[in-house]
C-alpha cells in the first residue's frame, strides 16, 4: 500500500510559478507509475500528467504541455509537478496518484486506473 501526501499549493498571480510535491510512503514507490490530476469546482477530475516508473518518461495533457513538467526522485519517494506560466483556468485542487500497471492512451489518463490518491492541494491563480 502507498500513502501519498501533496504539498506546495497556494495562491499565485497569473504568469507565476509553483512546484507541487507528492511524498509517498513505503519502499515500493519506484514500482508505481505516478499521475497528477486536478479538479476545479463543479468539474470532473482532469488528467494533468503521468510519469513512468524509472525512465522518467512523461505524458502531459495538451492543456499544460509546454508549461508544466513532471519529475520524480525515487530515492526520495517524491514526485513533482513544476507549473510555469500559470493561468486562471489552472485553479483547482491538484492530486497525485499511483498506478501499479503500465498503460497507454486513454487508460493512462483515466482516474479509474490509479490505485492510490493523495488528499489534494489547492492551487489558486489570480488575475
Brief summary of the model shown:
The protein is mostly beta strands. The chain has one helix and eleven strands, in the order βββββββββαββ.
Give the topology.
Blueprint: E1 4-7, E2 10-13, E3 18-24, E4 33-39, E5 46-51, E6 58-60, E7 68-73, E8 78-83, E9 92-99, H1 105-109, E10 116-117, E11 121-126
Parallel strand pairs: 2-11
Antiparallel strand pairs: 1-3, 3-8, 4-5, 4-9, 5-6, 7-8, 9-10, 9-11
List keywords for this structure.
127 residues, 4% helix, 11 strands, 46% strand, seven-stranded mixed sheet, mainly beta, 1 helix
What does this structure look like?
The protein is mainly β and 127 residues long. It is 4% helix and 46% strand. It contains 1 helix and 11 strands, in the order E-E-E-E-E-E-E-E-E-H-E-E. The protein has one helix at residues 105-109; strands spanning 4-7, 10-13, 18-24, 33-39, 46-51, 58-60, 68-73, 78-83, 92-99, 116-117, 121-126. The strands form 2 sheets. Strands 2, 4, 5, 6, 9, 10 and 11 form a 7-stranded mixed β-sheet that branches. Strands 1-3-8-7 form a 4-stranded antiparallel β-sheet, with no helix packed on it. A hairpin with a 6-residue loop joins strand 5 and strand 6. The longest helix is centred in the C-terminal third of the chain and has 5 residues, at 105-109. The model has no long low-confidence stretch (mean pLDDT 95).
Amino acid at each position: 500500500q502507498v500513502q501519498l501526501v501533496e504539498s506546495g499549493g497556494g495562491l499565485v498571480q497569473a504568469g507565476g510559478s509553483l512546484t507541487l510535491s507528492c511524498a509517498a510512503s513505503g519502499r515500493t514507490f519506484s514500482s508505481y507509475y505516478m499521475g497528477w490530476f486536478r479538479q476545479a469546482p463543479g468539474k470532473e477530475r482532469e488528467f494533468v500528467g503521468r510519469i513512468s516508473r524509472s525512465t522518467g518518461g512523461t505524458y502531459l495533457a495538451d492543456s499544460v504541455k509546454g508549461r508544466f513538467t513532471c519529475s520524480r526522485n525515487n530515492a526520495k519517494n517524491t514526485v513533482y509537478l513544476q507549473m510555469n506560466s500559470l493561468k486562471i483556468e489552472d485553479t483547482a485542487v491538484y492530486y497525485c496518484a499511483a498506478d501499479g500497471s503500465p498503460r497507454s492512451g486513454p487508460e493512462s489518463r483515466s482516474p479509474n486506473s490509479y490505485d492510490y490518491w493523495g488528499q489534494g492541494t489547492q492551487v489558486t491563480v489570480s488575475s
